[in-house]
Amino acid sequence: MYIDVIFRNKSKMTNRLYSYYSSEDVEIGMRVIVPFGKSNINKLALVVRINDNPKRDIDYKEIISVVDLNPIVTQESIDIAFFMVDKYLSDYSSAFQTILPPGNFEELKEYFTANDKLLNVDEDLYNILKTKKEYSEIKEISDVSHKRLMEYVKSDFLKMDLVYDQQITPKLLKYVKLIEDNPVISKRANAQQKIVDMLKTNNNILYSKLLAKTNTTSSVVKALEEKKIVEIYFKEVDRVVVDDTRTYQKIKLNSQQEKAYNSILENQFNLLHGVTGSGKTEVYLHLVEKMLNEGKDSIVLVPEISLTPQTIERFEGRFPGKVAIIHSKLNVNEKFEQFRKMYNGEYKIVVGARSAVFSPFKNLGLIIIDEEHETSYVSEKNPKYNAIDISGFRAEYNNAKLLLGSATPGVEEYSKALKGEYNLIEMNKRANDTNPVECTIVDMRKELETGNIKMFSKVLLNKIQENLNNKKQTILFLNKRGHTSFISCRRCGYVLKCDSCDVSMTYHKTKNRLICHMCGRTALKPKVCPNCGSKFIKEFGAGTQKLEEETRELFPNARIARMDRDTTNTKKDYKKIYDMMNNQEIDILIGTQMLSKGFDFPNVTLVGVMAADISLNLGDYKSNEKTFQLITQVAGRAGRAEYEGDVIIQTYKPDNFAITSAALHDYKMFYEKEIKLRKSFNYPPFFRILNINISSKNRNVAMKKINEVSNYVAALIRRYKLSTTLINGPHPSPIERINNMYRFDLYYKFPNGEDKIIEIIKKVLINNEYNINLEGITLKITLDPQSYF
């Protein structure tokens, strides 16, 4: 038989499938060892396709051996990777890395352990493998062949485990058990008797726990072991231990939720548009329970795992022991353990960020994407993918349900729903029947006219004081961290920029340092202007640190906390603030868009949006959409319980439709105006966008190469008469230099469904049919980019 394989190889020259001959039976998803290259180096490869039509004029190399007894990935996972290669112009190595067991593919190892049945067949090998050993260890002490070991595995004489050498190691804890029923202990050996008495009622106890409970030492246990009264042994335990969570009782759905639940079960592809506080999560829980009762698996995606503690608590509390939580803080051993338990069916539910979409379930029944509008579901770094696309592929593949949920659906997904591509479900009322929060727009231009140069309008100041008097909590939202936006000289106009990037550095007062938010470089704040020597150097603009400083001056007796990437780096940091808010130990919480996700505190009755128009100035076509979403989401944090809420929206653009629509809680009003703009300017969902970015440490090299690519593509566009494909560029990127790499862009806009330009890009850059020299540059191709920086 002939097979196609892929290697873990980032070289552009080997970004393809390789074909081999195998005299052994092999399945897709197994690993094989093959000779590679002119030197026939032994390499580990993954079988991704059975080649039924090999070319007859090629002398195929034969594989050396089959590594696996069973596939390590499913056929579905293989198909997902091919889907990514085709849809996102991804390289094979990056695409397949998403579906492989966590860790280093090259370092997957086989460990063998003897079953009792082996004793009667091969006593010598049984004695060697009573404890788990890796194949290389076995070869050193035995002449047994790999083939014989695999035969023993097939006959159930041996157990084989796949782990990652040097990366994946089992977590072993020491235990003690009593092996003599009625041991005779000397009357003077009181400590030994304590051990025996404890083991009679608590046999197979953790070694450390036994010593603590009996107040004895390890020498006492060792003495009992020598007398063959007890046995000390090691036991493999789970690395991922779920924190104790309170039980989350099932709640009866209200009529609005029940209607949504039934509608989702009747349709395969669904978009749930539910206002903040409408009870979408409870609908999710009921759907997952339905799948669980049918023996099916569920994937629940959230934008960022550390920012959604209440969602995690609800799933773990409702389905204890059945939920895998996938997040970036897990080490490779923990990730592998989660993968294995999902692959083996021990876990039936996974909650995680975008990468959880690749979870290796074999009986998938439901995929839920909460807050589907979030850009974090799109990976613009290798491997590039959109979790919504992958979810749609998997739902189709498994005949599973797909549910996208949001209070502020993405314009493109909502457009699909209106065309019938999704079943559209509306939940327009809050679950507790409370009224929508009252939103007030404050024109900050008028505040300036009256002499108010503070960050706070008079209306917001009065509302905060009123809230403090009433023992209620306030959230202040400013989507810019740091103290000030930039530092500039008032004499010569010089702005302090990063030495490696074409961006101004942000001043962080708590660290007393300038930080580049692009590359992370830091610098001390200068005392005089580096350009002219003037002392008139000053901070301009404002971030969350500056807002906190001013808030403390205005409300000195209030308990104030700040939540942004500077104060909240870990799950522990987040939980601390979360618990303090929950316990009403914070009066005013200041933060960035981290505040807009997952917060549900009954005592929060006021939200202040400090500068609603910041996101309007991003310079990309989604700026209106992002502004509407942020205001709506953060406004939804107020008045979620029995207390009514207020939202004060401060802006210098009070007439912008994104801001006015958000203040009126009117998504349809926003959508109707936004979709007209998108159509008139040829933006998604009417047109698609393809970006080519070329960067190099040498500006001339990058510029020359982007022009060369542009010329080839333009010639092919003319040849194929693609009159509807619009070209923008080449030109320097909006931020031309990042990390000392000079960057240039080409953009192509083309009608949705007319994908000939994608074939052209494959010809020119993926297959390199024109032999363009791509050495010395970094090439990035992005379909449907989420930003332009």
TrEMBL record:
Zn(2+) 2 binds at C498, C501, C516, C519. GO terms for cellular component: primosome complex. It holds the Pfam family Zn_ribbon_PriA. GO terms for biological process: DNA recombination; DNA replication initiation; DNA replication, synthesis of primer; double-strand break repair. Gene3D superfamilies: P-loop containing nucleotide triphosphate hydrolases, PriA, 3(prime) DNA-binding domain. Residues 524-707 form the Helicase C-terminal domain. It is an enzyme of class 5 (isomerase). Its EC number is 5.6.2.4. Binds 2 zinc ions per subunit. It catalyses: ATP + H2O = ADP + phosphate + H(+); Couples ATP hydrolysis with the unwinding of duplex DNA by translocating in the 3'-5' direction. InterPro entries: DEAD/DEAH_box_helicase_dom, Helicase_ATP-bd, Helicase_C-like, P-loop_NTPase, PriA, PriA_3primeBD, PriA_3primeBD_sf, PriA_C. Its cofactor is Zn(2+). It comes from the Bacteria. Zn(2+) 1 binds at C489, C492, C529, C532. Signal peptide: none annotated. Belongs to the helicase family. PriA subfamily. HAMAP family: PriA. Initiates the restart of stalled replication forks, which reloads the replicative helicase on sites other than the origin of replication. Recognizes and binds to abandoned replication forks and remodels them to uncover a helicase loading site. Promotes assembly of the primosome at these replication forks. This is Replication restart protein PriA. It comes from Finegoldia magna (Peptostreptococcus magnus). The gene is priA.
